[in-house]
């Protein structure tokens, strides 16, 4: 009996690659599929490579889950959801897909980790460049724009932590043009507690995509502190980026989680004590964000970063502030998408 079970397990295992390859990979959504959708992205090694199209063009097949409102009248808006270092979470569906569907907005929850055999980057962000999250969001944007159910002029992006960094990057034309040749662009961007210790910007001001941005920050966040993002928002506003900032009291990183919890992560890395650095993708320069002083080289930046990176951060839900942030996001999207 054991030998028969072993043979059966071997036979099933041998089928797994062919079953995976049998999944349809969509280049457009003209057939209007639902549920899990497989599509092509790329995996740049750095944001510099993405901006300058120096990445390997070999497709990386990723997937996303599409959630549609129960009632749809005409073409509807859509939101691309980009997860953080912990990967997909229950809240992505329970709070955000639900909230968007209630508004008559489709939700497209992108998984950047599982297709690349990554569970989490909390303890090692080097497992995958955040440029891959950018690329996946742009690939999702291009794909959704082909769906006859979706209004291609009203596709937004919301991201959390690492995924929040995607929203910051998408304010700049240089990132959008890293993968998109036509005029397709995001119509709204929402960044929840993104990391703002090292930010991509340019001096003089970069060419902007013209997309409004909302930042949702936690007052007690010791993973990606609110103050650093407030500093960056002032620079963005100075350079004519439309951005509204919300800081939620008594809120830690991941405060919008729908499950009440508080947790200390001793091995998670944070740049909270690092000086704020502007990474200039257009000129290959590195500056202190607020003073504008240049660093001598990339090596100097790497040495500075190694010296200030620390471990040990806290995360936790605040159900009251999570609900408040949800209401603020809905109000922001109504304005951005010109919804009733």
From TrEMBL:
Residues 64-269 form the Dienelactone hydrolase domain. Keywords: Hydrolase, Signal. Pfam families: DLH. One of its GO terms (molecular function) is carboxylic ester hydrolase activity. InterPro entries: AB_hydrolase_fold, Dienelactn_hydro, FrsA_esterase. Residues 1-22 form the signal peptide. SUPFAM superfamilies: alpha/beta-Hydrolases (SSF53474). This is Dienelactone hydrolase domain-containing protein. It comes from Undibacterium terreum.
